[in-house]
Amino acid sequence: xxxxxxxxxxxxxxxxxxxxxxxxxxxxxxQIQLWKELILDYCRTQKIFIIELEKEFPxxxxxxxxxxxxxxxxxxxxxxxxxxxxxxxxxxxxxxxLILWHRIQDxxxxxxxxxxxxxxxxxxxxxxEIRSGTxxxxxxxxxxxxxxxxxxxxLLEHKGKLAIFKGTTADDEGVKFSV
Length: 179
Known about the structure:
Strand order of the largest sheet: 3-7-6
Mean pLDDT: 93
Helix content: 25-40%
Strand content: 15-25%
Number of helices: 5
Structural class: alpha+beta
Radius of gyration: 19 Å
């Protein structure tokens, strides 16, 4: 089985037709489904949150079979993720895509589990500590995209589970948990 670094790619990745948008509706739907799953799985395991259509992305080229996805195919596959709420275009020109391998609600649930597992109920942390502190090391929260984290925190704030307070800079924004 072929690998991209330590990531094992599925068998279809070695099949040249899957790098070309398929004209038959049923085949294209299967192709789109396989690519959506591959993109989410790869981004989750590699902790990738942003894919830029104009830049090289390891999944979009298979050097072994000398195939690359066209710009149109990349946009079709990412747009399919967007339509399912698993990604969002960050610009109107559809050049940059935020990948949500966990939905915002799922990230919020992970934050609550992290807080409870680490005995952080009724404590205060900076946003940066959640993203890169020693407590989050080894968890899915470690290295989380700041935009995704802030949206999950705001969702929890709306539910009354925490309060976000502004610091003098973005690096010292804080969170007071009240779980």
